[in-house]
Design a protein that fits this description.
Layout: H1 4-9, H2 74-85, H3 88-100, H4 104-133, H5 141-150, H6 155-159, H7 162-196, H8 219-234, H9 239-264, H10 283-293, H11 297-305, H12 313-339, H13 355-388, H14 393-417, H15 421-449, H16 456-484
């Protein structure tokens, strides 16, 4: 039988709700449009499982992960992992390096990357531990935290363990919807710049000249114009279908990145005027943008749970995140070296106004557009299934679609209220991404394994990572809010006329 705490929370795992009601009611525990089998409990086992199901795992060394026979392949999972991390955060990293310094920035980025990936590994390890211990096929982030609290020796934490799941769910919703807000701002800024410079766009990408921007509608109106198309995109609810769009987005973004790289490596000016370390007041803004960039921890367990062969996931995780980290450091350093103090919130806004680079902006915008669907998948699967379960089968599909429209509308409204790309990125990163990526996983490891014996150095390491994340959370959020409250006249409009 499923744990009653899981039944209380409903379907919070991505497409694989932990609650395992009877066959007649199971469809109310997840989006009814899904076309895969539910192997989230021990009541149902996938094809190829031993006769005893999960009960057959008598020893830790015999524990195996049985995937969904209709699940994603290793390359589809890698595509989703890359798409879950490579987005607007990558393009904002050159400005982040400016806020940290040409030496301190990349060094800090490397350290944060290693720590973030290490925390992803901790999360997967703890989830596997509880899958074996409680004989479950899948666990999501919230479920792992809940069982971690139940494993502690503190009575209050054990009796309130369900709040661990709820807090993680809240942060996941805030983080992923925050990413979606950033995507709205990015799309609007880039589309507005392309339209504004359309009359002055030429085929000559080598000349340096001032381009007079044609007056166009406010970027917030561009966000409203994009809203119907984004809503239609989020109606796609199957990861295998989304992988096709993710592949197209990856190709578009890869082509755009190649063109961006070939531009920024040419004519790099003398970097001697760039500070090795920037003022400490701006470093929290770097922290927020950097941790925002490593935005994939929310999709780690859902992607593994959707795999046909989840045993391959650890290799996919480390290979994928190594690629991501190399991209982050190289683009951030080269971008800052190329544009120096003139670097903008997104490096695409620094590109020349010729047709080649205008096409790059449109291509990357195309990729970000489909990335919205991948990031939206997480909060949608946390929020929607429990609400759909409250209505009859007849109205479930309509409630599902209406809730998706409402969630997308919320991200659009928030983007309209805070249309500054750099500050939105830093605020989302500091306020919510730091908790999920840095604070919770080390504490979860301590809660999970302390009773079984942990080396003091491992405990010290976990405490240090959590403290680092907490300091970044407090200071980064404060500095982002201060910048957000700055007078409008002091804010540089990222879509204003630029000198090329």
């Amino acid at each position: 039988m499923a744990d009653p705490k899981e039944s209380e929370m409903g379907a919070v795992e991505l497409g694989t709700p932990n609650a395992a009601p009877s066959t007649g009611t199971m469809s109310t525990r997840r989006l009814r449009s899904e076309d895969y089998n539910d192997y989230s409990s021990t009541d149902v086992t996938p094809e190829g499982s031993p006769p005893g199901g999960m009960n057959g795992f008598a020893h830790p060394e015999s524990y195996q992960r049985f995937g969904d026979t209709n699940g994603t392949t290793w390359y589809q999972t890698l595509i989703h992992l890359l798409k879950g991390n490579i987005g607007t955060g990558l393009l904002g990293l050159p400005l982040a390096v400016k806020n940290a310094g040409i030496l301190l920035g990349p060094v800090s980025l490397l350290v944060m990357g290693v720590v973030a990936v290490h925390c992803m590994g901790i999360l997967v390890k703890c989830a596997h531990h509880f899958c074996y211990r409680f004989q479950k096929q899948f666990l999501d982030y919230g479920g792992a935290v809940m069982y971690g609290l139940e494993s502690t020796s503190i009575t209050w934490l054990r009796t309130h363990a369900i709040w661990g799941r709820r807090v993680v769910g809240l942060f996941l919703i805030v983080t992923q919807l925050g990413f979606c807000c950033v995507y709205f701002v990015f799309l609007a800024d880039n589309l507005r710049q392309v339209v504004s410079a359309a009359n002055g766009t030429t085929n000559d990408c080598s000349s340096n000249r001032t381009v007079a921007m044609t007056p166009t509608m406010d970027s917030r109106l561009y966000m409203l114009s994009l809203l119907p198309f984004v809503v239609l995109l989020t109606f796609i609810q199957n990861l295998k279908v989304l992988s096709v769009f993710s592949m197209l987005a990856n190709v578009a973004m890869l082509g755009s990145l190649i063109v961006i790289y070939q531009y920024i490596v040419r004519d790099i000016p003398d970097p001697s005027d760039l500070p090795l370390a920037a003022a400490w007041k701006t470093y929290p803004l770097f922290f927020g943008t950097a941790i925002f960039s490593f935005e994939g921890i929310g999709v780690v367990l859902p992607l593994e749970n959707k795999m046909k062969n989840p045993q391959q996931f650890p290799v996919i995780l480390y290979v994928g995140m190594t690629i991501v980290t190399i991209l982050y450091i190289s683009l951030s350093v080269l971008g800052y070296l190329r544009f120096g103090a003139d670097i903008q919130a997104s490096i695409t806004l620094n590109l020349p106004n010729c047709w080649l680079y205008q096409a790059v902006k449109l291509l990357f915008s195309f990729g970000i557009f489909f990335t919205y669907a991948v990031q939206f998948y997480v909060p949608a699967e946390i929020v929607i299934p429990p609400l759909v379960a409250r209505v009859s089968e007849r109205w479930g599909w309509l409630v599902n679609l209406l809730l998706r429209v409402a969630l997308v509308g919320v991200t659009c409204v928030l983007a309209i209220l805070i249309p500054r790309l750099d500050i939105v990125i830093s605020l989302v990163g500091s306020m919510s991404s730091s908790a999920l990526a840095l604070i919770f996983p080390p504490l979860l490891e301590i809660a999970t394994f302390y009773a079984e014996g942990m080396h003091p150095l491992v405990i010290a390491k976990d405490v240090a990572i959590s403290l680092f994340g907490f300091v970044g959370f407090v200071v980064g959020t404060y500095e982002a809010l201060v910048e957000l409250a700055a007078p409008t006249a002091a804010v540089v409009n990222t879509t204003s006329a630029m000198v090329q």
